[in-house]
Amino acid sequence: MSSGSVRGRLRKPEGKLKFFSLLGIRIKKGAWANSETENNFPANVCKPIIRNAATAVLYEEALAHEAGTALTASGALALNSGAKKGRSPNDKRIVDEPSSTGNIWWGPVNIKMSENSFMVNRERAVDYLNTRPRLYVFDGFAGWDPKYRIKVRVVCARAYHALFMKNMLIRPTAQELENFGEPDFTIFNSGEFPANRYTTGMTSTTSVALSFERREMNTRVIDYEDASLTENTRCAYPIEYIPNAKIPCVGSHPKNIILLTCDAFGVLPPVSKLTPAQVSYHFISGYTAKIAGTEEGVTEPQATFSSCFGAPFLVWHPTKYASMLAEKMKEHEASAWLINTGWNGGAYGTGKRISLKYSRAIIDAIHSGELDKVEFENYPVFNLSIPKTCTGVPSEVLNPSKSWMGTADSYTATTEKLAKLFIKNFAAYADKADHAVLQAGPSV
């Protein structure tokens, strides 16, 4: 890919701006002069804007301009992002406008925002970016399949943000970059600048605002200069760093769909074969569990339900995604499995974490077709179909009722407790789920 820089300034929009412009000039295709060359720019420009830079250039930029950035022994770029180190799911807002309002799952996950409030946030983001001494632009694709992928442009003020998005999105080839044109979506990342809490609809200094009509996203978070550390460490690397990665990452339709959970109550089986209705039920539920010590105030296992195993990222109602999954599975005759990598023999603190070698053996048996040929039995309450045998896994581990180390009463009580939590959680989706899916959950 080409890398280089130009000097310029973000431009406030007149109408629907869907591209990044510099003093009224669109970012050119191809390479600009190297960023080290300071005399190749028009007299009316005011700052370096580094576009689609090579990884080495972004390393150099981060090391030179971001305090606290360093190289690890392995060659990775390490830094402290500041006070905000995780997602802010309660701060995601979407503009409520006619063309998309009927398709959005409005509520705690997708909070309504007016066009005016979005534009206030957008203007503050652009104004902030214009105050930065240098800017970075990355153009990439979301989605590997050319038939469905969208073009995304990211504008940010920190080199590591550009590097992160370069890892997370699909990097265009030199030819694709030459013909990139205008993006389908533009992200303005002004993460160091706080949102105005007094803007209508805002409740904190964090804002992740999305407009489907304008095809733009603005992100703003306060206090990246905070020096505190956290266990919530994140890393990102190119897909090519995985030895057996298939490039491009496009393949045939899968024959086995695996839903992954971590049950800290110790009552979900390590593997269950799901019916089509159960796939939808457990996909919509998105169950996992927090364990004691992971968060302040958590002293015993707590059930956590995140629709489609990723509620903060959803726009449609969860049943829409579940229906799409069910249709694809039916069309391509795929099987589905619920895999629990959590606890066995008892809840967290009593039982043991399911051995990784057992989980690997189960996955291998699914892919080899072994589990399609063994005998199954019904697991009560959750009404799951579980295998009696699996190569490399003790038979008692496959059935939590047989591996439970406590009393029969404690096993029953724990199983029913988790089942009731499932039922309570799913009540929020009952009005849009069909009858078969409603009947696919646990019964107490």
Question: Please, could you describe this protein's structure?
Answer:
It is a single chain. The N terminus is likely disordered. The strands form seven sheets. A nine-stranded mixed beta sheet has the order 1-4-9-10-11-13-12-7-8, sandwiched between helices. A three-stranded mixed beta sheet has the order 14-18-15. It has two domains: 238 residues, Phosphoenolpyruvate Carboxykinase, domain 1 (3-Layer(aba) Sandwich); 183 residues, Phosphoenolpyruvate Carboxykinase, domain 3. It contains eleven helices and 22 strands. The chain is an alpha/beta fold and 444 residues long. It starts with a strand and ends in a 6-residue tail after the last helix. It is an enzyme of class 4 (lyase). It catalyses: oxaloacetate + ATP = phosphoenolpyruvate + ADP + CO2. InterPro entries: PEP_carboxykinase_ATP, PEP_carboxykinase_C, PEP_carboxykinase_N. Pathway: Carbohydrate biosynthesis; gluconeogenesis.
Write the layout of secondary structure elements.
Elements: E1 4-7, E2 21-22, E3 25-26, E4 48-51, H1 55-65, E5 70-71, E6 77-78, E7 92-95, E8 111-113, H2 115-131, E9 135-142, E10 150-156, H3 159-168, H4 174-178, E11 185-189, E12 207-211, E13 216-220, E14 256-261, E15 271-274, H5 276-285, E16 287-290, E17 302-305, H6 318-332, E18 335-340, E19 343-344, E20 352-353, H7 356-368, E21 376-379, E22 384-387, H8 395-398, H9 400-403, H10 408-426, H11 435-438
Parallel strand pairs: 4-9, 7-8, 7-12, 10-11, 11-13, 14-18
Antiparallel strand pairs: 1-4, 2-3, 5-6, 9-10, 12-13, 15-18, 16-17, 19-20, 21-22
